[in-house]
Input
Amino acid sequence: MKVKVISRSVDEFTRERSQDLQRVFRNYDPSLRPQEKAVEYVRALNAVKLDKIFARPFIGALDGHLDAISCMAKNPTQLKGIFSGAMDGDIRLWDLASRQIVCQFPGHQGAVRGLTVSTDGRSLVSCGTDATIRLWNVPVTTLSESDDLPKNIVEPASVYVWKNAFWGVDHQWDGEHFATVGAQVDIWNHNRSQPINSFEWGTDTVISVRFNPGEPNLLATSASDRSIVLYDLRMSSPLRKMIMMTKTNSLCWNPMEPINFTAANEDGNCYTYDARKLDEAKCVHKDHVSAVMDIDYSPTGREFVTGSYDRTVRLFQYNGGHSKEIYHTKRMQRVFCVKFSGDGSYVISGSDDTNLRIWKAKASEQLGVILPRERKKHDYQEALKKRYKHLPEVNRIARHLPRPIFKASALMRVMADAKKRKEDKRKAHSAPGSITTQPLRRRRVIKEVE
Amino acid sequence: MNDSVIPELYPESEYNPSRDVVEGDGRISIEDLLNPLSEKPTYGKLRKRELQIKKNTRTVHAPLSKAVQSKVERTTAYERSKKDVTKWQPIIQRNREAPTIFFDENVNLGFSTVGAIASEFEPRTEFEKKIAALVYDDKVVEAHKMDGSKLLEMNQVSIEDEKDRQNRIAKMRSLLFHHEMKKKHIKKIKSRTFHRLLKKDRLKAEASQIQMDPEAAKEYAMKRERERAEERMTLKHKNHNRWAKRIIQRGLNSQDEGTRAAIAEQHLRHAELTRKMHSMNGSSSSSEDTSDEDEDENSAASDQDRAYKLLGKAKDKTMKVLEEEDEVPKSGLLSLPFMRRGLEKRKEEAVEEANLAFQEYEDSLKKLENSGGSEDLKAALTSGRRVFGPAKAQISGTSIKEKSDNCYEGSDSEDDLGIGKSGNMENMESDLLHNEDLVVMQQETDTLQKSVFKNIDDIIENPGPKTTYEVSMFVSDSWKKAKNKNEDTAMKKSPKLTGPVRQDIKDTEKELREDSDTDSEGQMVDGILSSVSKVPYELPSQEELIRLTFAGDDVEDDFEKDKQEILNLENPEPEKPLLLPGWGQWTHIQEKKGLPSGMLKKHEEAQTKRAEALKKRKDARLKHVIISEKIDKKAEKLHTKSLPFPFTSKEVFEQSMRVPVGPEFNPASAIGLLNRPEVVKKPGVIIKPIEFEDVNPHEKPEQRSGGDKRKLKKNSRIGGKSIKKAKAGGKS
Output
């Protein structure tokens, strides 16, 4: 007679250490677990709720400037160094980890409008309304000593005085050129006191400039004539101009997709364009209720942050029509500049209330060292949220909005609805085919100029 | 090209007219220019060229305007850079399609070991330099180099020093130990006097210390001050302070309103605090009392019980009071002999009083029992309820209560309080119990009989619809089902069989009185069967069969009923307004006017609303259809209202939700892959912008590495089959 005995191999069931978890063997037969979907649904719901509870994105404010912050620049080689320029001509280097000023760069007579750092992180370029460009050598941060001593003050390495006020500056990635904008677009070299090249197309002031980090010779500018212009340093002329219905305050190239850039527009929307196809936006990112002042892409290229005149900072997916996060505090005023940190996990905003604010890029993320089991759990919850995000109970849980924003967005919705209704009626009462509605992606573009 | 050249210093304009304008046609031709050169050796060549140019003349267009020129330039430049940029397309495509992008691989974190970090260290501050000077001393370095043995030599300690050190440590240890033991010993001493003296000593020492040490004095003063402040705070509400006293002295009425309010507030506060204090003291007992009361109220089935309980409680309380008074103070004013005598006297009086009270309780209890018991008896006899279960329970319940009271009395008698009536009581009760038992027995038998008769009669008179069904069974010769309860009643339909059945029933009635009904049923059925088998059976006609088969099967009626039921369920009928005395109006008004008009109106409105809702239903006009309009709200939240954006078909969407992703439902090797986020990055690692790499868009997907700093990897699907990465398991 054969007797069946439960046998277990010692190797499989012996723990190496007493702290090790006991191995659990499961039968994954789905017929044994008829409730799995229900269980996961409830877990997803709980995950979303917890996500809302733990959404505490604000980390800290950097207080010290005496006037509104107009521009920021991050150090490409260092995570914790960030430069900020204020409307009173003050430039400071901050240490994000300790939230202290490392050193100051005094010298500008008017507002600082542009700041940028070379890719090696050694030199800082600033320009402003006093029509000067100043080059500074970035000091090696020695934080521990800067506590008690008087603030380190840095003298500019060189000052170039020019004919017109400057509105912005950006440095080429891995190159020695930087571009300033104002009356025209000037390309400068670190070693020369004169621009090595100038582009001019039209007479209006150019207000922002960004180099393409993936394709270092390509740059885009936006001007006060509501245009966006593309340039190539290898060509002697500008490439293409596109005019929109409202002004573009700032723009940013996607660092992982060098053909795409997103424009922060005065009408409260952001428009993502393909540089090869400027007559139509690829995506319209709606949610802000006032002009978007600045935009910056996450280095992962999957999301970007916008700062707006409506006193909020929002985070968007690179292909999302609506924001996934909204950051606001009672004390934060108009946001003039935003930056993603170099590792894509923090967001820094500079606003009218003279403060820089540090936020988490993921509002409910757990900071600090995360154990592998915790990491697994977080991943699982994220996967569940992603899977069940379309269901009404999960979908309904949203972030709190400040009252003015809530009301303004409601009003804008009403206006948009009314407009749509009117258009529909007009369409219905005219000969079929005589009135065509263009999608929003195309509607906001007036023309493309060759 | 023109054959004349006009040398002009300045470009031609209205301020600088050309010569031909000034002097007439005096153009300089090429010949004019060539003639002076006729003697030069290269003249022939020039002449030849000139002739050639003249022979085949071509027109050269004027250059385009600058605007147009730059436009053309821009267009071509744009085309070129467009083409250039398009090289990124496959890379972008790949990254977008990848379920996960990694940004955390092959990261050079700089120094990896402590040694590497230490080797880069340079002393900067004074302290660091001092340390460095010591560490990098030539002697020490040298000693380290020779396998460390020299270090020992340098680190020599004399034996005397070491001994001294050990002795010192041993002495300290023994001192500590002795101190500890002493403390333990003192702690164990139980004598109060000793501790009192000890405390006195300590206080004395402290006092002396206060005098000696200014620090200690200051501390002491602070402590006293704090105590005083606390006291002040507590006394504030007692009107003991000077201000309050003065105000009270002057008379509250002569004060202004603010002062009066302040004083009143103080009073209030004091009252509140004292109340709170009292309540804190007596809270436990009072809560118990209330809970007891609650229980009593809840459990009391009849007035009689409540009365019992009340009496019992009263007794209990008096008992308690007596017991409390037993305690005699052993010290203080009350312990003096004359005081004690007085107390004893008072206590005796109290005991007498209590005894009287107990007698009263007993009397009243007796009365209650007499009256209650007789009532019960009457009720049991006269009411003759058919359903005896609950009645019996009630009776037994009361009897149990009485018993418990009995026990209670017993305990009383033990207390030597002179209650001699418990014996009587017990007798009374036992009689009563006996009587009640009898009554119950009688009732039981009565009801049993009645119910049996009634059941059988009912069955005979009202053959239900199911009986016909059984008939059909009977017709089709399936005798095996004959044990069904309805079978026998079916028999009774045929008049021939009534006689024997009646007999049987009578038999069973007899049997019922002895046996349980189920057994008797079986026997009864057996009897019927035996009687039936003897009757000659004729096949009924087809019509009759059909009629018999569907005799009680009114399908239409059933359907209508079902529909009505569903309608009632989905649009429930409003409740009829109920006349509750004193509800909504005073009772006498209600008696006169009936229901309040508002209630009636509301009811009418609800009814009309329901009628409208019924009319609006989709199946309102369809007589033979039920269309359920019930929405399952619980299930609704598990469905999306429309197909979510990226999905184009319902099946695909459902498929995406089908397989669970949790660790309970998947093996550990698969979870990492299922749950991996879209972007994997490490906090604190700077992500550089993308670098170009050649990607063949038609290549099979596999692992690809970007630059040496960063890897972009892809795990994409081709032909619906996912290729799992070996790395996935390690990552999760």
In short: Chain B touches chain A through 55 residues (CB under 8 Å). DSSP finds 30 helices and four strands in chain B. Strands of chain B lie at 101-102, 679-680, 717-718, 721-722.
